[in-house]
């Protein structure tokens, strides 16, 4: 049993009862979550149906641990009395986990049934082009490569068909989610999701507005540049959303394949390992546990997983010789070093980031280095200065384009849950016109908003990335002030990140963590300075 160094003067009985509860409860959560993470790793590296079943079963078992209403009440009472900051924070984490499981069981069951049904419908839906069924990949391929504007328009229109088909079912799900939120006394689901992550929805919408205003001119200029290129490339003056390279205009359409030449002669894993070494951080252990290359049955994307909150941290990648994969490996290892850096003496419950946005900030900051001219000079020693300059420009474009997409999604979701009965297609296009500055073609009566998978199945999610980007730029600015360099390849950088950003884990809220790392609250200013001036 642990010897506690100092008992708080007051409420020592409650303190002791809470400690007894933790000693009994946490090992059960820890055991179940290690099992779940291993099942998840097995599933993603093999694609086996048994692993999928195991993962789903363990997922439910883990949730059930946070279900008991009596325990939830006791946690609330202990929280009233607690004064020790580590007790307080563990209670905060536990209360938020228990709270979302206090939604009536029948309602939770209805929601997961509807979600499962929708997931299946998305997977099975095949739109038609000229009377022929096509896949999503075929549509993406056309938007990436086809030169004929008519063919592009048909493909783009086909990509929206799923929205019209599934919108009524999504609206039923929105209603159920709002019912769940109201059961926990939140005005709607959007606000509940944010509150449970310690995000103030008014602040979020306000800070996104500020970012939008401060980057508006830069984005306007970029859109004109993009349109000029598109008119030239497609030899037409009649542009539309189908002139972009993806169905939602969320990616940089000028993305330059030529940049891949930059990484043609390097070993991406080796270059990434050296990059972190120069920062004074050894990623050898993470790489040794990782699954790095393409294989049959394996998940085709990338992620980082902390199996046990001790030192078993793994990344999954599908490395190929491209800029995308240099960025991705740096990104996932950025998550990895964050997880590796938690103070080992923290209680298990606090060995995690306080919010996804802080670990994303680290990962995004690292991933960006693949496109920053000065970092590229170190990552790829023999790279051509002209190409490196192009990479710099492409990073700026990607940031601006993606930020606009997040603004659309966040504003739309906030309105969708506030008033699902309004004309949602009109709302969707008014936001696309406002933020992405892309004119709406004739789409009345359609359900284009519902064509985006995340609206129904990964709700209230994108905003973390944009907050993460803002935080990343603020961290970069702080590091520059201290080290006098914009490059991260310096042991001093590793040390600052380790002590300030990683080590505290979730012992403080993300707001307090940001203040302690950058000395102020997160604002769009550093991001605007870096990408929109
Ligand atoms: Zn990430």
DSSP helix fraction:
55-70%
Query: Counting H and I runs of at least 4 residues, what is the number of helices?
Result: 22
The structural class is mainly alpha
Query: What can be said about the biggest beta sheet?
Result: 2 strands, antiparallel
Description:
The chain has 533 residues and is an all-alpha fold. It has a domain at 12-102. Helices cover 64% and strands 2% of the residues. Strands 1-2 form a two-stranded antiparallel sheet. A two-stranded antiparallel sheet has the order 3-4. Strand 1 and strand 2 (132-133) form a beta hairpin. The chain is globular and about 75 Å long. The termini are far apart. 36% of the residues are buried. The structure holds zinc ion (ZN). Zinc ion binds at residues 331, 335, 360, 363.
What labels describe this entry?
533 residues, single chain, 4 strands, two-stranded antiparallel ribbon, disordered N terminus, mainly alpha
Describe, in short, the structure shown.
With 533 residues, the protein is mostly helical. Helices cover 64% and strands 2% of the residues. The strands form two sheets. It has a two-stranded antiparallel sheet.
């Amino acid at each position: 049993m642990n010897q506690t160094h100092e008992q708080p003067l007051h409420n020592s009985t409650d303190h002791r009862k809470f400690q007894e509860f933790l000693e009994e409860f946490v090992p059960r959560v820890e055991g179940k979550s290690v099992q779940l993470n291993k099942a998840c790793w097995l599933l993603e590296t093999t694609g086996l149906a048994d692993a999928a079943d195991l993962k789903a079963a363990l997922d439910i078992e883990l949730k059930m641990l946070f279900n008991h209403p009596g325990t939830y009440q006791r946690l609330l009472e202990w929280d009233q009395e607690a004064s020790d900051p580590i007790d307080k924070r563990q209670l905060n984490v536990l209360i938020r986990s228990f709270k979302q499981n206090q939604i009536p069981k029948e309602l939770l069951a209805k929601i997961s049934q509807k979600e499962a049904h929708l997931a299946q419908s998305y997977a099975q839906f095949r739109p038609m082009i000229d009377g022929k069924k096509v896949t999503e990949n075929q549509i993406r391929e056309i938007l990436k490569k086809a030169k004929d504007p008519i063919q592009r328009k048909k493909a783009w229109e086909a990509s929206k068909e799923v929205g019209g088909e599934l919108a009524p079912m999504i609206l039923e799900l929105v209603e159920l989610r709002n019912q769940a939120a109201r059961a926990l006394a939140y005005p709607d689901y959007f606000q509940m999701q944010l509150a449970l992550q310690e995000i103030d929805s008014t602040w979020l919408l306000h800070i996104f507005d500020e970012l939008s205003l401060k980057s508006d001119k830069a984005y306007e200029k970029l859109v004109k540049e993009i349109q000029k290129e598109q008119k030239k490339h497609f030899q037409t003056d009649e542009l539309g959303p189908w002139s972009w390279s993806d169905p939602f205009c969320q990616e940089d359409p000028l993305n330059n394949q030529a940049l891949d030449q930059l990484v043609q002669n390097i070993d991406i894993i080796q270059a990434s390992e050296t990059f972190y070494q120069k920062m004074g951080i050894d990623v050898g252990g993470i790489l040794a546990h990782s699954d790095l290359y393409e294989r049959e049955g394996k998940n085709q994307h990338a992620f980082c997983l902390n199996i046990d909150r001790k030192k078993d941290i793994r990344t999954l990648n599908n490395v190929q010789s491209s800029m995308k994969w240099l960025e991705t490996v740096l990104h996932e290892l950025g998550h990895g070093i964050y997880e590796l850096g938690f103070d080992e003496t923290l209680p298990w419950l606090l060995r995690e980031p306080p919010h996804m946005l802080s670990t994303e900030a680290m990962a995004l900051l690292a991933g960006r280095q693949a496109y920053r001219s000065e970092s590229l000079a170190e990552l790829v020693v023999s790279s051509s200065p002209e190409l490196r300059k192009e990479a710099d420009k492409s990073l700026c474009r990607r940031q601006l384009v993606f930020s606009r997409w997040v603004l659309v999604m966040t504003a739309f979701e906030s309105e969708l849950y506030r008033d699902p009965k309004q004309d949602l297609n009109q709302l969707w296009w008014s936001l696309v016109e406002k933020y992405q500055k892309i004119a709406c073609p004739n789409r009345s009566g359609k359900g284009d908003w519902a064509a985006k998978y995340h609206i129904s199945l990964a709700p209230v999610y994108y905003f973390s990335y944009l907050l993460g980007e803002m935080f990343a730029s603020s961290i970069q600015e702080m590091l520059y002030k201290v080290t006098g360099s914009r490059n991260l390849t310096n042991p001093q950088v590793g040390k600052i990140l380790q002590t300030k950003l990683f080590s505290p884990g979730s012992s403080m809220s993300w707001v307090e963590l940001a203040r302690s790392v950058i000395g102020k609250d997160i604002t769009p200013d550093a991001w605007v300075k870096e990408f929109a001036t």
